[in-house]
Each structure stands twice: as C-alpha cells, then as structure tokens.
Amino acid sequence: MHGRKRITQEENNSLEYKEEQAKKISQYRKALDLFSIDKTENICTEEALVHSTGILDLNPDFNTAWNYRREILLELFKLMSDNEKQAKLEQELEFINIAIKKNIKSYWMWNHRQWILTTMPSPDWQKEAQLVDLLLHIDATNFHGWDYRRYVISKMCEIVDKDEVIKKEFAYSKEKINQNFANRSAWHYRSKLLPEIIRIYQNKPLKKIVKKEIELLKKAIYSDPDDQNAWLYFDWLLQYDSEENEMKESYVNMIHELLELEPNCKYALEALIKHHVGLSNNGPVALSTNHMCMEYISRLKNIDPLRKNKYIDMENIHRRCRTGIPISSRSSPLDKNNLSQLSNFEECFMQSRPIVSKNFSTAINAIINLLRFKTGLPLAGPVSAYRDVFRLNSLIKTAKLSRFAAISLSTLDISDSNTESSEYWKSIFLTKKGNEFFCNVDEDYIMDRFNLTGIQATVPQFRAALELILDELELDGITEELYNEIHASADHLYGMIHARYVMTSQGLMKMLEKYKNNDFGFCPRIYCNGHPLLPVGLTDIPGISAVRLYCPNCEDIYIPKSPRYKYIDGAYFTTSFPHMFFLTYPAYKPPCPSKIERFVPKMFGFKLHKIAEIHRWQDKQRDQQTKLLTEKN
What we know:
It comes from Smittium simulii. Tetramer of two alpha and two beta subunits. Pfam families: CK_II_beta (PF01214), PPTA (PF01239). Belongs to the casein kinase 2 subunit beta family. Belongs to the protein prenyltransferase subunit alpha family. One of its GO terms (biological process) is regulation of transcription by RNA polymerase III. The strands form two sheets. A three-stranded antiparallel β-sheet has the order 1-2-3, with no helix packed on it. Strands 4-5 form a two-stranded antiparallel ribbon. It is mainly alpha-helical. The N and C termini lie far apart (87 Å). α10 packs parallel to α12 and α17 packs antiparallel against α18. Helix content is 62%, strand content 2%. It is flat. It folds into five domains: 217 residues, Serine Threonine Protein Phosphatase 5, Tetratricopeptide repeat (Alpha Horseshoe), CATH 1.25.40; 76 residues, no CATH class; 80 residues, protein kinase ck2 holoenzyme, chain C, domain 1 (Orthogonal Bundle), CATH 1.10.1820; 69 residues, N-terminal domain of TfIIb; 26 residues. The chain is built from 27 helices and five strands.
C-alpha cells in the first residue's frame, strides 16, 4: 500500500530476515541511547543533531526526536547568519526528502517540514508545489500530500495572484477526479475551492457554475454508483440550490434514472429517502410517499445486511410520518394564548371529571401534566404526576379520548409523534435533587448495545428499565408495584451506563463543563483555598459505597456535605474517572507544590516543640506496656 511492498509470511519467517531485523534493533537501541543522553543533559550541538538524524533515519515516527531536533536547530541558529540559516534548513529539507521515501504517512515528518519552511528566511514555495505534484502523481489518494498541498497553496496565495492560483487548483482537482472518481481527497479539496471560485466569478450566474459541477458528478455517479464520494459531494452541493429547487429536482430525476439501471444501488436509495425526509421537515408528506420510503428501507436491509440496525432506525423515523406530522417538528414553548387554553382545558376537565371513566381521567391528567412540564409549570398532583407524563404515549393510544381532548391536543401542537419523549425521563432524573453530579448521557450511546455489554446481568428488569429511559415502555397492564421496581432499575441502569460514558471523550467534555461551573463543590480543606472537586467512587462494584469527592490539589477524598448524596452510588463515577479526567485535560490539574502547606499547632504564637510529641508518644507506649503486663499477671 502507498508504494510499500508487503512482506509475505515465508519471508517474515526466513533466517535472513530475522538476522536483518535483529541488526536493525541493535542499531536502533544504540541510536536511542545516544539520543536519550543528549536530551537528558539538554545538549544542543551539531553532534546531538547527528544523533537525532540517526534515530529518525531508523524510526521517522519518533515524535520526541523531531521536537528535540527543532530545539537543537533553534539553539544553533543563534550563532548563524541568515545565509547560514538558509543553507542549514535546505539541508534539513534534503533529509526530509529521504525520510519521506521511508514512511510517507508520518504525521510528525510533515509537521517538521512545515516548520522548516515557516522558519526559513527565503522559502521556495514553487519548488514545494512541484514536489507535491510529484507526490500526488505517485500516490493520488494520499491525504498527507493533499493536506500539505493546501498548506503550500495558501502560502503561494500570499506572494502571487490568489485568484489565478485558485483557478489552477480548481482545474487540478478536476483532473485528479477524472483520473480516479474514488479519490476522496480530491473531492474534499474541490469542496474547499468551490466557494472561492463562486467569489471569483461573482458576475457569472451561479447556475452555470453549479451546472458544470453536476455534469462532473453525473459522470462520476454513472461510472461508479457504489462509490460514496460523489454522492457526498452532491449532497454538499445542494446548499447552492436555487429557490425553485431546480438542482434538487435534477438530482431526484437522476437517481430514478440510475435506479432503473442499478436497482440495488444503496446510495441512490438512501439519497431518495433523505430527500423525502427533507420534504417532511417542511410539512406533512403524502402517505404514498411514506410507503415508498418504507419500501426503499426494506430493500436496503436486504442489500446491506451489515447496517440493518441503521435501517431499522430509519424505519422508526418514517413511521412517525404516517400521522402527517413533520419529522423535524418539535413543540415550542407555549405562548400566553395557549396557557389560557390550558387553564380552560383544566377547568372543563374538573367539571366533567365525575362522569368520565377512570382510564380517561388518567389520560387527561397525563395530558395536563405533560403540558405543564413543557411550559415549565409545576406538575399537578403528587409525585405520581411525573409518571403520568411517561404514561401519556401509551394512554393516548388506548384511551378513547373525547373529541374535545383531541382538539385541545392538536391546538396546542402536542402529540406522541412529535415530542422528544426520551428527554423527559432524563430531564426529570437529572434535575432531581441529589443527581446534580450526573451528566446527560447521549441517547445514541445508550442505544448502542455494545456499550451495555455486561450490565444486563447486574440490573433487574433490564429490558423494561432501558425502555423506560428511552421512553419506549408500554405501561398497559403494568402494576404500580412493578412500575416502581422498573423505575428503581432504570435509575441503577442509568448510573451504570454513566460510569462508562464519563470515561469517553464526549462524557469527559460534559464533565469538564460541570467542573468549570463548580457543580461538584469545593474542597473543605482550608489550605486548598476552595479548589473545585470531582466525584469518585471508592470501588467499582455497585452497592458498597456512596460517592465521594476528590480534590486534585491535596489529593484526598471527602464526604459530600449534603446528606442527599449518601444515596448516590460511588460506582456510577468509578475509581478511575478523576485520574482519566486530568490525563485528558492536564491544564486543569493544579501544579504540584514543592511543599504541601499544613496546619502547624501553636500556643500563644509559638510552635509546639517536637520533644512534646515524643514525650506524649513515650507516655502512650508506657501505658500500653503497663496494661499488657497487668493483664498477664
């Protein structure tokens, strides 16, 4: 790959290959020892530069060696003139040219090359452009080369006519795309250049520029419909569509034509589904269109069985369209008129309550509480009112609501098909007193079954608890006692998922925001001067110990002040979280003091003499020995 010959298993096991590898390892160890001595003793001489050359010649991916090599060069430049500095950096470029041949995909080497040209008094950007041309001629899909090309071109635009350079690069990207329609880097580069081309030809109609792009895309798609790159570029290009949606119409017509030739093209089917979702965002879609999307999704399941779960999710989205409600519609906060309607609705309901059935009564209560919850009003009734919010979806389906109730729901733009129901359980859980330490776990993370591996055996009523968290639980026939058990299991399940989520990059970012906001409190130790704390567990096994708070300044743990935290399991935050947090964000870890400040006992302003401590210890030991002798006698 990328011009590097693959070594066969037979060659790998040969005696000659093993001897050659042993020799390289020996050379590498010697070079590493020399380099380590130079770095430890901070030696910045020509000899140290030679030692770094030796180690990088054997291992171009040694990031530390590249960093220290720059330090050596900067130290040597202090005694050089500009001409000498230029000559030295040109030698460095020659060394890089040799290193490129050994490992063209080394991030650190390309980073070092950029540093050389930035530091060089007179860099030759034209020569660099020729080098990149040669590189992309050898390997046209190498993203390092394309990334470096963008850097070189940006520098060239500072010294020559920018518009002319952009035009040439735009033509160059088309040339590379025509050579290989699967060249993702070339498509990406073209997407970066197109806005500049539109700026340059601002007097030219946008339709003409976009039309040429569509011609190129059609050529690419018809040549290889199973390549994703052209489809992605076309999807991105739609942002330049006119108000009449001419481009989108052309796009849809092209897809239908393609499907006649290639009925199993999954990207064409996905594009059609996405187009219909876009229509549904602007209003209700026809039932026939929805059925068509469901048919496309069914075909995709057979064409691409590895992504079956993805298509099941798409199916669930389109089921919501059957009610004629836009997919993207979300209930906005109610205005004053709607609030007055809510008040009238409650009043009418209270008057008719004695004559309605129990199921209807429960459903209307749930509706009222949902409306209150969405508008920020306190929920009516006892704590069970929270549960009514979750019962709403299933009750509306089963209860025979009066025409008045149905009209009220439609007027207030509330229904089970357009509310982000999964946010209700989490919103209530996270705002509950004592749960302030938890962060909001992404729904995608919860739905990924791989993230739940091993938890199922530790949580009773696992399936029902998971459905409750995602607000997919059908509550018909569930008793009050069983519901309470499921609710408790849901709390525990969320905590166990949270323990894993806070160790991911997304979870750490959310906990960082809480840390910045001092949501976990401050260290009670006087000499820590109110340093922020982080939650930590004493064990990773649930049910043993409550959550504790870790101070990175004194490196000690404390019991939270409020008694409400004594019911929060420490396993929900793991024993490793604070340490992973500061490994990920070292800038937030306080510097290690040379001497930890401690309280010094004094009397009348004088320190207690250490002899007093020794005397107290001696007295204590004497009393213990006397007690032992007395017991023996």
